[in-house]
Design brief:
four-stranded parallel sheet; two-stranded antiparallel ribbon; globular
């Protein structure tokens, strides 16, 4: 019973969806609640119609407001129903997308039903009239949805399910172990291990968003997706050796199980199979040449980033924020860029989006790696991290000297680890890293402003939210009362 109202809204959306998609963007109203704003930094003003967003980029309101108006929507950031009622009754709008708490949506939608106005609703994930949150994926999907839209509606769940099916032993064995070798068996076993499969998912979604016909995913998309996962899993084998890690995905790493020589060989095998799969795609020669070029360039850039990190770790030289950002840009961003760009090449749209994808993935990769360092949530003096770099940047001279001593030292005793923990807390590195991550996420989304292909733009915008898992636990409005 707790989620009955939420479920009813979702069912109502599906009943209205076809009618909603048939209404042109220019005849739609987007209704947003002002409680989504960043209450501490908001520069917006109010007038008799509602909230006048400054579009500063500090919260979701400005971002959605700007893009919806670009498409042709009328946009209101207001509480209550009188303005909406007047617009509906005047005939100025023919469809409404409402974002709000369930009680607000319940107040608006009876008027829409009475006027036979199609509409979709996206309930807030929590209430309280300030600092609320929403499932951004649902908002963007609804905004872009359009009858006969180029590329059709993107169904992440459906594509993710199909991608997962490509990584079963039954699918992989004939694909990357046709000779049934022992090394091939280890490669297949390593590929089937757990993981988020972001790279193959991005490739498949990019291709599907950019094509203009059909929902069928051709075999070349599957083979290319498996290839880039081969590259990724090979890099993890090598990373685990370089970092001395004994566990990954809750299981022993490959080198912990079979020794370093065998693990290195399996990693090399995966790289070879990845390039073989790309070279044998059932695509025209010029397409295969482009794909191989994209993969090779990304592979080289990633090695340069990894090499810079390893050499920095070895030399124990100056650790700066600038150096870490450069490492992230080379080490993490190429994985996203290669996946999306190969998908674009397979759709024969790569030249149109090359610059956008480069800017988007650079910022996204940096933000993702900052998030990864924050998730580790410790001062590991055995490896460079953004938290350690920020500590150096924010420290006073005496603190900086002590950090440098710890960074250049050997194993840390419990006493030194406790000292490092105190330094971390006093220098407020986590809040600084979180602000930096937020800035790069905003930069990634801003890079999409020039994209006019709605399904592809929607894909990339939704992708940013999914990768960072911005959604909070669903709460009912009463959680904030009494």
């Amino acid at each position: 019973a707790e989620y009955l109202s939420f479920a009813a809204v979702m069912i109502n959306n599906e009943l209205w969806r076809k009618g909603w998609a048939a209404v042109p963007y220019q005849r739609r109203l987007l209704l947003l609640p002002k409680c989504l704003r960043d209450i501490n930094g908001c520069r917006a003003k109010m007038d008799e119609f509602g909230f006048l967003c400054d579009q500063c980029g500090g919260c979701l309101i400005g971002e959605v407001h700007k893009e919806a108006e670009r498409l042709g929507y009328a946009v209101l950031v207001a509480e209550g129903t009188p303005v909406v009622m007047s617009l509906i009754s005047s005939g100025q709008v023919e469809a409404v997308l409402g974002v709000g708490c369930l009680s607000s949506l319940e107040g608006v939608f009876p008027y829409m039903e009475a006027g036979a106005i199609p509409g979709l609703a996206v309930p807030l994930l929590n209430d309280g009239c300030e600092s609320t949150s929403v499932d951004e994926d649902l908002v963007w999907e609804a905004i872009y949805e359009k009858e006969n839209a180029e590329g059709g509606r993107m169904n992440f769940a459906e594509i993710r399910g199909r991608v997962e099916c490509w990584f079963t032993p039954e699918k992989l064995s004939p694909l990357i172990n046709p000779q049934k070798s022992e090394t091939g068996e280890l490669a297949v076993e390593w590929l089937t291990r757990a993981g988020k499969r972001w790279r193959p998912l991005l490739l498949a979604c990019a291709r599907q968003a950019l094509v203009q016909k059909g929902r069928e995913i051709p075999g070349s998309v599957m083979n290319a997706s498996v290839a880039i996962e081969c590259f990724h899993k090979a890099s993890l084998v090598h990373d685990d050796i370089e970092d001395g890690d004994s566990f990954r995905y809750g299981h022993k790493t490959l080198h912990a199980l079979y020794g370093v020589p065998v693990a290195l060989n399996v990693g090399d095998y995966l790289i070879g199979e990845g390039y073989r799969l790309l070279s044998e795609l059932n695509e025209p020669e010029h397409i295969k040449t482009k794909i191989l070029s994209v993969a090779a360039k990304g592979h080289k850039t990633l090695c340069m980033g990894q090499g810079k990190e390893l050499l920095l770790r070895r030399s124990r030289g100056g650790l700066t924020v600038e150096n870490m950002i450069d490492i992230f840009q080379k080490k993490t961003a190429p994985a996203f860029q290669v996946a999306l760009q190969i998908g674009a090449v397979l759709a024969q749209k790569d030249e149109e989006f090359e610059d956008v994808l480069s800017a988007f993935t650079d910022a996204l990769g940096i933000a993702y790696q900052i998030k990864d360092d924050l998730a580790d949530n410790d001062f590991d003096f055995n490896r460079p991290s953004i938290l350690l770099a920020l500590a150096f940047e924010r420290a006073e001279k005496s603190q900086k000297n002590r950090l440098d001593s710890l960074w250049r030292g050997d194993e840390l005793s419990p006493e030194l680890l406790s000292e490092a923990e105190q330094l971390r807390k006093s220098l407020q590195t986590e809040p600084a890293a979180e602000e930096m991550m937020k800035g790069y996420k905003i930069k990634a989304v801003a890079a999409l402003s020039e994209v006019n292909h709605s399904p592809f733009k929607s894909l990339l915008r939704i992708l940013a939210g999914k990768i960072f898992d911005d959604l909070e636990e669903l709460k009912c409005c009463d959680d904030y009362k009494g």
